[in-house]
């Protein structure tokens, strides 16, 4: 009786911290979903009791949509700020506007009376040589402009890397590999925090403005997810539930792609296809809403920049022909080969950076790469301009008023109808542009390998598209000239007669961009939709799909991983790829711990261990949780308790519950054994015990176990034989086993 009276269930009211997770650990999806169902059931039942409870139920249901609205507004606003700032600072490397130093080159010349062909040479805009020397001609003026370009680039990149290193180390890189891992249930504290958001926003502007071969599109997904994570704290159901928070982050990722490309539908599909692990139907509609709000917010902030709803608007005057699928497929092959080459080279460089002294000097690395990039970029107008401008020019279909060197053909307007120009012989300007583009292609292919992964924000979408767009434009001009000079060949007869406008080099650039982006990321459907929304070219979906699928097949034949999956594996994150099949004939007993040569499994008994015994187990091991059994002899399973919950519960009981000492018995059952009257109080911790841990038998095939871990999002499952506990399989064990079966290093999996 006495034992009964001194018992107390200390956790009748939930303690702060109980049910939460430690850093670099995986969440328990099953438990989180169960908690949300219980919460929703309680709110629904209470809504029938009073008007106030009914209003609370309505507000709870509406809170998800309100959160999406806030994410869209904040993400769109930050993207607009980044877009405007990056345009101004990019132009600052070449000169300044006298009408107002805050104007970029384009805005500076809006009110100028210059002709259309001289629209970039307005008197209000002065190059640095004009500002300092008073003239812009001659060798010394060129050298001064060159020097200022390199100095500004070095200043921007230096400031970016110092801010990242000093204030927010998580602000570097693309962010998509980590977001993909977080959405699968992994915890990385601070990765989506306030400091990361602030520093990533500032340094993204600096990194893009420096002229490095990187884009802002991937990092914008990270920025949007930071917005989503921070705003989650305004709503209890998202703040206290990790699974619900990941639904919000999936929608935020869609908003990030939407503001990056002006592609709301593509953003949702990207989130679904590329980054999300759990994507219920309601998340689909909420993601689309957040993406739309973000896109319109961005457009309202910067309506005249690259933030308009169609980023690279194209207006091709002639449809494509079926025979052109051959060069389109060739571009797909090039994209696949480039993607496989880039992934292997970049991962090898990043691994070298991690395992050698090179990784100890991130500032020096950024400065060296920036200096090389700026020195090589300035002499070539196609590498000097921003990558977005370059892609826009490559996508362009030459018209009568175009003054670009890419449009300097031998003019013959006798057969011109409206804006349609016939295929013509290439002039000197086109040939000059071709060799300049060839040099730009070589530079971007190699310099991007060393840029992606440095300690500054760096996206890969735009550099990959630039490589493909250059290759596509080169091939497009080659096919165009072939058709012009050999229109009587069998492949051109019937559809490309002399004087006809039948080959569109800009279309080849667009297809090449899709092919290279697909080869690097292995996206398919979402890529085609993004390209359609980027360009507005609905009738070119078939060429885009042909190139995207070909590039994926070619790249997959060389290596199965896309760039983001490769970086996940490089960093040792516990990401279980849902698309890969496990076909090896192994069993649960082959993977579980302990192995035959290992010490016995560490367990806690249900009602015979003291506080001191449990504390000794916790301090002497590093496991995330412990099975609870009836006794060490029977090994009959009772449940599973998390290490973090144990530590918090015991610490709080020692502080707030009288009579809890080291010799107090810990009880995980409803009815604890009777103890002598002189015994200290019993600490009852049944409420933190998971009474329904997932179990499999020792003979269960591993392909079923892997499937269970993927589809239920488990962090561990227990292995039994005839009801007797034998061992445990964690997510880390599963990943190590998959790596071992694929002849990879199992020790590359660093986290659980």
UniProtKB/TrEMBL annotation:
Membrane topology: Multi-pass membrane protein
Keyword Transcription regulation: no
Transmembrane segments: 62-82, 139-161, 195-214, 220-236, 248-272, 322-341, 361-378, 433-454, 460-479
InterPro entries: CBS_dom (IPR000644), CBS_dom_sf (IPR046342), Cl-channel_core (IPR014743), Cl_channel-5 (IPR002247), ClC (IPR001807)
GO molecular function, one term: antiporter activity
Pfam families found in the cross-reference section: CBS (PF00571), Voltage_CLC (PF00654)
Keywords in alphabetical order: Antiport, ATP-binding, CBS domain, Cell membrane, Chloride, Endosome, Golgi apparatus, Ion transport, Membrane, Nucleotide-binding, Repeat, Transmembrane, Transmembrane helix, Transport, Ubl conjugation
Reactions listed under catalytic activity: 2 chloride(in) + H(+)(out) = 2 chloride(out) + H(+)(in)
Residue span(s) of domain CBS: 592-656, 688-748
UniProt xrefs under CDD domains: CBS_pair_voltage-gated_CLC_euk_bac, ClC_3_like
Top-level division of the source organism's lineage: Eukaryota
Similarity remark: Belongs to the chloride channel (TC 2.A.49) family. ClC-5/CLCN5 subfamily.
Assembly and binders: Interacts with NEDD4 and NEDD4L.
Annotated protein name in UniProt: Chloride channel protein
Lineage: Eukaryota, Metazoa, Chordata, Craniata, Vertebrata
């Amino acid at each position: 009786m006495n034992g009964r009276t001194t018992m107390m269930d200390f956790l009748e009211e939930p303690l702060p911290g109980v049910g939460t997770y430690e850093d670099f650990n995986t969440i328990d999806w099953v438990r989180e979903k169960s908690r949300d169902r219980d919460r929703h059931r309680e709110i629904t039942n209470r809504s029938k009791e009073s008007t106030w409870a009914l209003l609370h139920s309505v507000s709870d249901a509406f809170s998800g949509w309100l959160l999406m609205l806030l994410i869209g507004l904040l993400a769109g606003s930050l993207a607009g700020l980044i877009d405007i700032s990056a345009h101004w600072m990019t132009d600052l490397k070449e000169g300044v506007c006298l009408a107002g130093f805050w104007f970029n080159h384009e805005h500076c010349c809006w009110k100028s009376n210059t002709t259309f062909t001289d629209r970039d040479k307005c008197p209000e805009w002065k190059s640095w040589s004009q500002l300092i020397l008073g003239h812009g001609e001659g060798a010394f003026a060129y050298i001064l402009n060159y020097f200022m370009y390199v100095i500004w680039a070095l200043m921007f990149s230096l400031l970016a890397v110092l801010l990242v290193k000093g204030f927010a180390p998580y602000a570097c890189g693309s962010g998509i590999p980590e977001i993909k891992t977080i959405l699968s249930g992994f915890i990385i504290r601070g990765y989506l925090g306030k400091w990361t958001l602030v520093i990533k926003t500032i340094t993204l502007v600096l990194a893009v403005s420096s002229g490095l071969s990187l884009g802002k599109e991937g990092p914008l997904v990270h920025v949007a997810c930071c917005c989503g994570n921070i705003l989650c704290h305004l709503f209890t159901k998202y703040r206290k539930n990790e699974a619900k928070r990941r639904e919000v982050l999936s929608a935020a990722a869609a908003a990030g792609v939407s503001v990056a490309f002006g592609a709301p539908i593509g953003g949702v599909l990207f989130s679904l296809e590329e980054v999300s692990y759990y994507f219920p139907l309601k998340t689909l509609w909420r993601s689309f809403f957040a993406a739309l709000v973000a896109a319109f917010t961005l457009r309202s902030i910067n309506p005249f920049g690259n933030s308009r709803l169609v980023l690279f608007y194209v207006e091709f005057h002639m449809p494509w022909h079926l025979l052109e699928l051959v060069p389109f497929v060739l571009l797909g092959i090039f994209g696949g080969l480039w993607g496989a080459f880039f992934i292997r080279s970049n991962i090898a460089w990043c691994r070298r950076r991690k395992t050698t002294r090179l990784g100890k000097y991130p500032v020096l690395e950024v400065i060296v790469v920036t200096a090389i990039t700026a020195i090589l970029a300035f002499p070539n107008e196609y590498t000097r301009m921003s990558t977005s401008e370059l892609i826009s020019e490559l996508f362009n279909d030459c018209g009568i008023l175009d003054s670009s060197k890419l449009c300097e053909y031998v003019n013959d307007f006798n057969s011109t109808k409206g804006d349609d120009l016939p295929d013509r012989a290439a002039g000197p300007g086109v040939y000059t542009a071709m060799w300049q583009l060839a040099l730009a292609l070589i530079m971007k292919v190699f310099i991007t390998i060393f840029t992606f992964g440095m300690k500054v924000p760096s996206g890969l979408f735009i550099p990959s598209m630039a490589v493909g767009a250059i290759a596509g434009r080169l091939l497009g001009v080659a096919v165009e000239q072939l058709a012009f000079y050999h229109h009587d060949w069998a492949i051109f007869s019937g559809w490309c007669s002399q004087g006809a406008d039948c080959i569109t080099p800009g279309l080849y650039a667009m297809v090449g961009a899709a092919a290279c982006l697909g080869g690097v990321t292995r996206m398919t459907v979402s890529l085609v939709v993004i390209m359609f929304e980027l360009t507005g070219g609905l009738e070119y979906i078939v060429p885009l799909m042909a190139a995207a699928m070909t590039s994926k097949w070619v790249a997959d034949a060389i290596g199965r991983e896309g760039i983001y999956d490769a970086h996940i594996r490089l960093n040792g994150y516990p990401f279980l790829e849902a698309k890969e099949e496990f076909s090896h004939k192994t069993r649960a007993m082959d993977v579980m711990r302990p192995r035959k040569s290992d010490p016995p499994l560490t367990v806690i008994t249900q009602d015979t261990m003291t506080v001191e015994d449990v504390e000794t187990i916790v301090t002497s091991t590093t496991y995330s949780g412990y099975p609870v059994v009836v006794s060490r002899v029977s090994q009959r399973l009772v449940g599973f308790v998390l290490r973090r919950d144990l530590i918090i519960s015991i610490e709080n009981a020692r502080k707030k519950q009288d009579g809890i000492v080291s010799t107090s018995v810990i009880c995980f059952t409803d009815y604890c054994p009777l103890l002598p009257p002189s015994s200290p109080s019993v600490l009852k911790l049944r409420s933190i015990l998971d009474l329904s841990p997932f179990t499999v038998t020792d003979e269960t095939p591993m392909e079923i176990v892997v499937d269970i871990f993927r589809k239920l999002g488990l962090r561990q499952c227990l292995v039994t034989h005839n009801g007797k506990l034998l061992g445990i399989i964690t997510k880390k064990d599963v990943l190590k086993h998959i790596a071992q079966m694929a002849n990879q290093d199992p020790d590359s999996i660093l986290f659980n």
